[in-house]
Every structure is written in C-alpha cells, then in structure tokens.
Amino acid sequence: MQPISSSNRTIPSGLMAGIAFGICLFLVFFFATSSWASTPSWQPSASERLVKLPSNYLKKAIDRDFAESDLASALTDVNSRVQLKGQTLGDLQAAIDKAEGDVKIELRHQFLAEKQEFIKLMGEQQDMRRKQVETKIKLYERLLAKLERRGAGMTPTKAKLLDNQKAARERFEGTASGVDMAIFGSAAVSESRYSREYAKNMTAIEALVAAIKEHPMTAEPEINGQPVSKQDYLRQLIAENQARVAIVEQEENILGYMAKIVALDAMALSEEVAAEDIEDSGVTGEDGEVSLSAAVDFFVP
Amino acid sequence: MTIHTKKLLAALAIAGVMATGAAQAGTLENLERERAIMLETLISPTMTPEERAAKVAVSKHRLVDLERMVLRDQSLVGKNRPVVRKAFENYDLTFLVHSAIEKDLVLLDHWLEQVGISTDSLMNARAGRR
Q1: What is the largest distance, in Å, between two alpha-carbon atoms of chain A?
Q2: CA-to-CA separations, B116 to A231, B39, B113, B124, in angstroms, rounded
Q3: Which residue ranges make up each domain of chain B?
Q4: Between chains, do A165 and B88 touch, taking CB under 8 Å as contact?
C-alpha cells in the first residue's frame, strides 16, 4: 500500500480510509435515525365509532387499524430484515474466528460493514416503533378529550333534572306494587293491556340484559383486578405507551453506543492494517522515524 | 305565477299539513293531556257525583299507565327542556295517581293539598274585591 504525502507527515492510505469509513458510518447512522428520514405513515382518526366502542374492544380496534396501515407493513418488513441481518452477523462472526491472514481482515471489514447495515436497519425500526407509539398516544389523548367533552355538557340544571328523574324512578319503584294492589286489586278491574305487555316484555328484556352483561365483548376493563371506567382505561393505555416511548429512547441510546463501537472498531482495523503495511515496507523504525540503513538504498545506485 | 308553481306550492302545503298531523306526541305530552282532563273532571261543577266517579275511575286507569310510561321513558332522561324539568320538579303533582295512592289520599284531596288549598284555608276564605 502506497503512503500518501502531506505537507507535514506521511499518512497511510489505510488509515485515511478507516477515518473516512468512520465518518461515513456516523453520517449514515445520523440520517437513518433522524426524523428527516421518510417513514411510512399511520393516521388513525378519533372517530365517534371509536368513542362509543366498549373499552376492551377499543384497543383491539386500534391495533387492527394499525395492522392494516403502511407503517405496520413497513415495520414487519424491517423486522424480518433485522432478523436476517442478525443471522448474517452471526455467520460472519463464526467465519472470522476460523479465518486467518488477509481473509480474516477482509471478513472483519465485511463484518463492520454488516454491523453498519444492522445499525441502520435498527434505526429505521426504532423510528417506526416510535411513530407507532406516539401516534397511539395522540389517538388515546384525542379519544379521552372527546369523552371528557361529553361530560362537560353537564349544566347545573341538567344535573338537577337527572337527580329529580332518578329520585322519581326510585320513588315509583318503591310504590308500584302498592299502586297495582290499589288499582287492579279488585276482581272487577283487570290489569291494563300496557301493564300486561310491559311485564311480559320486561321478562324478555331482563334475560337479554343479563346475556349482554355476561357477553365477553361488554366486559369492563380491569386494572389490577379492579373494574375501571373508560377514561381511566384510556389514561392507563396512554401511560403504557409513554413507557414504551421511554424504552424506545433508551434503545436509541444503545444504538448510538453500538454505532460508536463500530466506528472505533473501524478505526482500530484501519490502524492495524496501516501498521502491517509499515512493517512490510521496513522504512520506519519502532519509534516511527526513518532508519538510515534502510535509506541507503535510495543513495546507492 | 305559473300553473306549475301553484301546483308545487299546493303540494308543499299539503305535505306540511300531513307532516304536522303525523307528528307524534311524547309520553309526557300524553300524560299532561290526560291529567288536565282528570283535573277538569274533578272540579267540574256541571257533573253529578256519579258521573264524576265513573269518569274518574276510567281516567285513573289510563293515568296509571301514562305515569308509568313517563317514568320509564328513556328518551326523557337528561332531556333538559322546560316541560321535562317542570314535570320532574314536583313528583306529587305530575304523577298524581301514584302519589295519591302512596299517601293514601283521595285524588282530589291530594291535588288540593299540593296546590295549597285545605279545608281550613277554604273556611277562612271570604269573598271580596281584589
């Protein structure tokens, strides 16, 4: 390998290549993980249908909507590529252990390139996961806001009306049988058609209501075994997804450290190759100075 | 105005009348109508006691059903309209029959009590110019 001359000192081409490789690696990693990189989208809407869905079904419906999105298919694709890349890295690592000499250097170089690709893919995967989780949080927040706006429509007069209606129904339920006895108790007066039909239908309604209550689709969500309201359930989902964002951020740090190690490995490899080149040429001594005995050849014809 | 325009206007007018006629009164409106008839019967000076008793008995049965229909009507829950608010503000006056039986009072006595007319207040009353 020929040394490249500069004004002050001579830098081996291997070292230059290593530094360039490291810089490129960082740039590639930066662009891969930055938000500039375009990723497929998932744009769910907080529709009225979602607001009305039973709590347990809500999460499933959102997950299903995500599964049908471009982002989900891109995430699946990148996941499989990451898996394949992991296998390639494993194979290369095994091959490096067995190889020697130039082949080993070449395999180490290839291993670094594959690690770079792996980090790039992992960066893409993290971006997509972050996008998925952040979109979910936004959606849950919009649904929660919608639910809370519904409750906000309660004015003092409406609240009073509801209280009065509840009290009236309770009072009626308490006296209904007494009224029945007083009005329809005598043999001369038969029960009205409305009362008969109502009682008959009520039996059917009660059976249906019981079946609905038992239906798994209407089961109330639970947190630690305690049934919770839809608002509480949404808050729980938001908290869970925020935890996932925090994990993704931590994983991005891990990825950053991985990239740094790859860059350091690349520099170490280039230094190693450069050192071998210098040893082969025999021009410099151990302290890096040009030895006079080796330079004699330049002067003797 | 052309003949077509006239025909169109006539058709619209007929449709409007039919639509008005087809509009259904709610349970509360039906109860209010029946209650008004009942009160009119109770205080009517032109009826004999027998006539009144017979009419009240029929009206009472209808009122029981209508009161229950209102109390069970889910469409009225939280319906913040003046007529609904007023109806539920005073159970004793709106659900006359249920309330009277609950208090073990004759319908007329119960109503008079609710509107603030008692035997004492009547005995103390005197005719005069306002």
Answers
A1: 145
A2: 48, 15, 5, 13
A3: 26-124
A4: yes
User: CA distances (Å), A250 to each of A242, A244, A247, B42, in order?
Assistant: 13, 10, 5, 81
pLDDT in tens, A157-204: 889 999 999 999 999 999 988 888 888 776 666 778 888 888 889 889
B-chain residue closest to A154, CA distance: B78
Q: Is A177 on the interface with B (CB under 8 A)?
A: no
Indicate the residue of B65, B72, B101 with minimum beta-carbon distance to A192. Answer: B65
Q: Is the CB of residue A178 less than 8 Å away from at least one CB of chain B?
A: yes
Distance CA A87, CA A59 (A): 34
Domain boundaries along the sequence of chain A: 9-152+229-299
Close Cβ partners of A299 (under 8 Å, ≥ 6 residues apart): none
Q: Residue B4: beta bridge partners?
A: none
What is the rounded CA–CA span in Å between residue A31 and residue A2? 33
Q: How confident is the model at residue A75 (pLDDT cuts 50, 70, 90)?
A: very high
Of A201, A157, A168, nearest to B71 by C-alpha is: A168
ipTM entry: 0.75
Q: What is the mean pLDDT of residues A33-45?
A: 69
Q: Which residues of A touch B78 (CB under 8 A)?
A: 158, 161-162, 165
Q: What proportion of chain B, given as a percentage, has pLDDT over 70?
A: 81
A162 → chain B, closest CA residue: B78
Hey, which residues does A4 pair with through a beta bridge? A11
Contact A165 B76 (CB under 8 A): yes
In A, minimum Cα distance to B66 occurs at A194
**Could B68 and A162 be called an inter-chain contact, meaning their C-beta atoms sit closer than 8 Å?**
no
Burial degree of A257 (CB within 10 A; 0-12, 13-18, 19+): exposed
